[in-house]
Design brief:
93 residues, Thrombin, subunit H, 6-stranded antiparallel β-barrel, two-stranded antiparallel sheet, 8 strands
């Protein structure tokens, strides 16, 4: 897990990560808000998600966090890869 932690630390120093306030603490996360076309191009859907090292914080469905002044609720958390990293899907409130 040290390699992943080092990777996130380097990405944070390079400004590639986004600060998220989770339970009063600031955690650097990989924040994604891609726009995806739905209904054959008639609309856009946003799927908000974050990725973070599992040792950075503990999140579960229903938890709330703040990114850029916007509050999000965690819908689902999944371990990815070897389990040292998590992906949480979010709903904007």
């Amino acid at each position: 897990m040290t390699v992943l932690t080092d990777l996130y630390a380097a990405a944070g120093r390079a400004g590639l990560l986004t600060p998220a306030v989770i339970g009063g603490a600031e955690v650097l996360v990989d924040f994604r808000a891609p726009d995806v076309e739905v209904l054959d191009g008639l609309g856009l859907s946003s799927d908000y998600a974050i990725r973070y090292p599992v040792e950075a914080t503990i999140l579960d469905s229903g938890h709330e966090l703040v990114i850029g002044g916007v509050t999000y609720r965690v819908r689902e958390v999944r371990a990815i890869g070897d389990g040292s990293e998590c992906r949480a899907t979010l709903t904007r409130l």
